[in-house]
Structures are given as structure tokens and as C-alpha cells.
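Entry for the shared binder. Reason: the reviewer on the internal report wants the predicted structure included alongside the sequence.
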Amino acid sequence: MLERCQGVFQALHLQFAYAERVAPQRFLLRVVLGAGEASLTRLTVNIDLRPVPLGLEDIAVVVLERPVQDAVRLRNRLAQSLEGVPQSLSLGNWYVAAPTGYRCFLTHQGRVVGVLLLGPNLEPIPNPRWRAVYQRSPVRFPPELR
């Protein structure tokens, strides 16, 4: 099972990033990694683009308070820095069996920051909802998906 998780993990690449509104004046930066066209895991990153542990998103440093005004500055920073996010991750050496398949855990400095979902057949389960949220976001990188 962990070998399959490792294979999927090694194929992950940056797909896109976007600012998601979580309160009237609060946005979090979400980074989506995937394989091919499939969006497989989503991370939250701080303003310094370091992944935030799962469950601690409420204390993440606010990425931007004025998304329209800050959009150009943020896009420039994302273009320079986001490619390093996948390289900063590790695959946890454990998994959890669930009724719908398996969960493999992505870690950053020993803390869980993302989850890969695999079905009972060990194929990755994508989440198309993230792409829809990206399309509605006032700040997204790249500005348009191919």
C-alpha cells in the first residue's frame, strides 16, 4: 500500500494556487497538487509559502486583506516561489484504511499538511471542487488554466 502512495506522491506537481475567502476580510492561500489533470491534494500555505499543518488553518498568517489590490504583487511572488512547495513535502510512513479506500499523509517538517485519497482499487481520487473554487477566486495562479 505504501508503495502505491509513494508512486502517486512522486508524480505530484503544482497545478494551481488561489486565495479562498474564509471570512469577510480573511483569505487563505490554497495550493493544489496533482498528477496529470487530476487535482489530488490541497495544502494551505502561510504568507511565506510554508505549508500549514492540517487543523491549524485558523492560525495561518492572512495572505491578503485586499485581494484585488494585492493580486499583482501576490501573483509575482507565487510565480517565483510556488515551484518549491512540492519539494518541501515528504510522504508519511503510515496510511489509514477508510470505507472509501485509503488515506496517505503528506508532511512538512514532521507535521501533516495534506492527504492523498486512494480508492479501494488503489487509484487516486481527485477532487474537482478545488478547480471550481479556483475559477471563482479573485486571486489565482496561474491567472488561467490551460
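Summary line for the report: Helices lie at 2-11, 67-81, 129-136.
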